């Protein structure tokens, strides 16, 4: 394999793994019947409710201690209760209607301006910016827009989602988790985790220093 490029080495290794199924030590259950799915969800929900302890959530989300990846139990039930009652209730959604209205109005103004000037506008990017701004204002109180028009929270969120969906050798072949180091995945996860920590620490300190009348998610959690 000395003359092979790195992607070719990964392909050769993958072929070897396919020929040696005993190396795959992560059990998986494949359900192809709607009746069986109904049986599992209705009568055995607790057994299958947990998510696996994957590498990406463990590094990025404080060992998976968020409401999406935390194991089923008392901690998860309390986190879910806080989310449903304090953050995502109908009353709270209605309280943030002003942020949605303002961001949608700003988007319409940008589109109108582009039409008047005869310039083009990327609707995909525009809708992503609007969504990021709405979420950022509801959660953090402001948009965190840079001078060049980039959104810090938007870039971090996009990077986070890409890494959460990235393939990890360690998730499927625990004995080969060292491959995540060789591929650079673990390094990217740690780098993104540090950037998230710095960003959230800054946001928390700002909220502690300035009390605002309209509370966002960070104020509520603090």
From TrEMBL:
The record's section on Pfam families has: p450
Signal peptide position in this chain? none
Q: What is an example of a GO molecular function annotated in this UniProt entry?
A: monooxygenase activity
Keywords (alphabetical) are: Iron, Metal-binding
Lineage, top-rank taxon, reads Eukaryota
Q: Which Gene3D superfamilies match?
A: Cytochrome P450 (1.10.630.10)
Family membership, please give it. Belongs to the cytochrome P450 family.
This protein's name: Cytochrome P450
